[in-house]
Amino acid sequence: MTQATRRGILAVITVIVLLALGAGLAFAVGDALGIRTEPAAQMQPAAAIVPDVADPVAPPDFVSLDVPATVRVGVAIDELLDAVADAPTREGEGSLTVVQSAAAGDEAADGYTLEGDAASLRIVSDSETATVRAIYDLAAQVRAARPLADLLGAHAPSALPLRMTDLGAVGVAPDPAEWESGTDYSHASKAFADVFQPEAPYIDEAALAESYRDFDEFLRHSLANGFNALAFPGFVEFVTFDDAPGGPVYADGDDHRDKALALREAFAPFWERADELGVQVFLRTDMLALTGPLEHYLTDRFGSLDTENPEFWDVYTAGLDELYDAAPALDGVLIRIGEAGPVYDVGGWDYYSALEVTTVDAVRTMLGAFTGQAEASDREVIFRTWSVGVGAVGDMHTNPESYEAVLGGIDSPALIVSTKYTLGDFYTWLPLNDTLEQGAQRRIVELQSRREFENFGAFPNDLGAEYQWALQQILAANDQLEGIWVWTQDGGPWRAGPMTLYLKAGFWQLYELNTQVAASLAQNPDVDVADVTADWAREWFSDDSETVEAIVDAMTNSREAIAQGMYIEQFAAQRVFAIGLEPPPMMWIFEWDILTGDSAVLDVLYAIARDATGGDIAQAIEGGDDAVAAAERMRGLVEQTDASTWRSPELREAFVSTLDYEVDVLRLLTAYRAMILHQGEWHDTLSPDAYAAWDADRAAFEQLAAVHLDRYEGDIDHPAFNVTAAQLGVDRAERDQVMAWIARGLLALAAAWVLIGILAARTRLVRRPGAAAARGTWLGSTRPWRARESTLGMLELDRWLLLIVPAALLVATRAVQTSFLSWTHLAVVLGAWLMFAVVVRICIRRRSPWPVIAAVGGVVVLRCILTLFALSFSGPGGYWFAFWTEPVLRTLYIAVAFALFVWVFVAAGWALAAQVGARRGAGYVLAGVGAGLLVPAVVIGAIGLETALTLWNDEMGLLPWGLARILGITTYLEIPSATPWYAAGLGAALLVIGVLLALPWRRQRAAASGTD
């Protein structure tokens, strides 16, 4: 066997190994992407209906009240009398008497009987709680303009005794300047920001008094709605940790302790007022909740934030003991472990949270400590299952097996488990959360009134039928359900949407409906939700029966407008999985108000919609038209009402304006939907008709976007949607066809270059100018051991073509691949190649560089041909479409691309071996690779990985544009921020190893002297 044959066999084996490794990498990439779908069992609420709306009934003037003289009853009576005073007319006089049993009973039981007649009402009850419920029911009946006599008879105790709210907008200043930009995605409410002061005495007393009045109003309103508990933000802010084991935590003179005492003194009256009115207060906190000194104390004592160590939690339970002793009005603590970090922090205050409770053992240890403390102190612990993909407990919220692994066997009577009713976040199209149907623990259900993902409650959105169906299903399956937690205001960023602040600013009455219907269902799951909607319309908008009926009729269309307009049903109605997570059903609007323009989401969305419709994309597009039609019906119904019948011209204008806004937004979304789906269809089918449809849709979208921005940009009541990412996607898409033609031209030139090289290797064509260079690149890339031979006697022109052709082709290919829009990508890629070339050239020194140039340049040409072929069908958009949606093509491409990439360096080393030997040739290559990795990694590390990835992604449009602005690419994908420095370390190691291998060793120096 000749040496040439042996080398050929070795080369073939090497290529096969590289292809196998590339295939392995491709399968790993596919596994990491994990893109798949499965059917989702949809909720099945009853269809919304319009009830018969009776004429309004005027209430009597209550001239006689014989009721217990307690604070709780007095506040309830205030609400009843206010309701009567707010009624347009009153008819007759009435009396109200309370007959309350003196025997000790269950104070929490709220069943009662109403006797007498409309003029002489008598409440018969066994507890103060039942008495005040009866009075609030009478007040609600007055506000709904219904006959008080309709309430006569026995009223069963509430089905769900715990009815909790968030803190609404208490303490939040309605400052329009903070909403104008629409780009503040912080989740911090900034509640009581005017109260907190950085310097002693730390509290602004005037602002505190204003916040107290705010709080009292919220309490009164929530009690009238039927709630009896609230979640109050904070925990470590109120604790000195003086009695912490091994403490104290704060050193003498540390102002954290003084702040804790000042804050506790300031807010204790808030908690006492709630307790006085029969409202339970739970401190709402993330775990871990930290301050700088507290974190140092914990790490010094335990070596780290060791959340699996039972003694670690003794610090926090000691803090609770201290707090409950100082503030007896507190009823417990509400804990979340799944979200934390800077997005929730308030600037200037050293109170923050960290995602550290991420294992099953850590959660169980934590709950063991907190429930033990709660039992001993006669308090309760509410634990949220909202784990959102973090650590080993990441799918506890949606996976029954994970739920059981975390909570199975924990049966403390002090533990209440809180879970969102949807199988994920508060989106339409998600199934009912089946983890609510299991477990031995006490349970409450989380509901959101101001739906953050559906434009923060800016659109009509009657969730009554869905709430009712969900609660009835859970109650039938789990007798441990005992309550609800309704978010009247909270959820998502506070200042990225409309400036609606509960009870104080904006059109908050619109989503008050969901708060009222949730409370009504918690008391009676069989309540007629259509009547609740009518009562809401009567209370806030009009006494006129025709107007109320028109509003209720409009609200029956509200769910269709949102479900079809803000979601693409064919995608949203399925469970989608990717990169180990379950993306939400509204990925095309990424996080609240950003129309995403990235290929990963939009290509996968198209493919799923295509498969769901059998390729009939028109079905998916029609949903947008249906939504617009529903919104237009709503607007028409409200507009045709008699303006004189409304309680307030401002509220009528707000209703009509929000419907104008909804119609405008849904038209914009419909055009965008058609554009992205036709774009996907073109990449998928290469149909000229699909391209023409996309082009028409693009023009329509750009026109509607311009009108939308002109009308709503800067409007804090109706904020414009963010179309920046969408426009970036349009800019890239507009270049796809041109890029495809450029790729075809470059592909033809590259193929001709290779063909000339093949022919020149066997014919007299080699004598033509440039042919020798083409021959050199062909031989160098396929038989690198002949690279030196192929460059001997080569003319100067041919030598420069050896360098210029591959280099120019590389630059052009990368430019086309990025649509000439990502100079960051080009800088990194070409910078790495430049460093490789410089180091190898330095190593070669006086030896001829042309053999290695021929080898490397030849493989670069082949690698570019592969990329250009992929780009030639429908440009970069088609390239990425295939990557995200075609597993077979992705696997083939990655396998070949990886093999060619590594073959570049194998060929370089092989070519160099003929000049300096195998060891030193490998050293030159390793040194070049190390430098090519080291320098870009250092630059990226210096800039910051998140910053660099954000810039690159903005130019490439692969991942959602909003990802960096809201969550952070590195956070979402769990990429360590130190990754560039790890890469730099690897590059440095390769560089050192390469240099050591490249040095002439003693034994060889003499033999090598004089050779070249």
Describe this structure in words.
- The structure is a single chain.
- The protein is α/β, with parallel strands linked by helices.
- 55% of the residues lie in helices and 9% in strands.
- The chain has 33 helices and 19 strands.
- The chain has an 8-stranded parallel barrel, surrounded by 4 helices. The chain has a 5-stranded mixed sheet with strand order 2-3-5-4-6, with helices on one face.
- Strand 7, helix 4 and strand 8 form a beta-alpha-beta unit.
- Helix 20 packs antiparallel against helix 23 (796-817).
- It is elongated and about 115 Å long.
- The chain crosses the membrane at residues 741-761, 800-817, 823-844, 851-871, 891-912, 924-945, 981-999.
- Keywords: Membrane, Transmembrane, Transmembrane helix.
- This is Glycosyl hydrolase family 67 C-terminal domain-containing protein.
- It comes from Microbacterium allomyrinae.
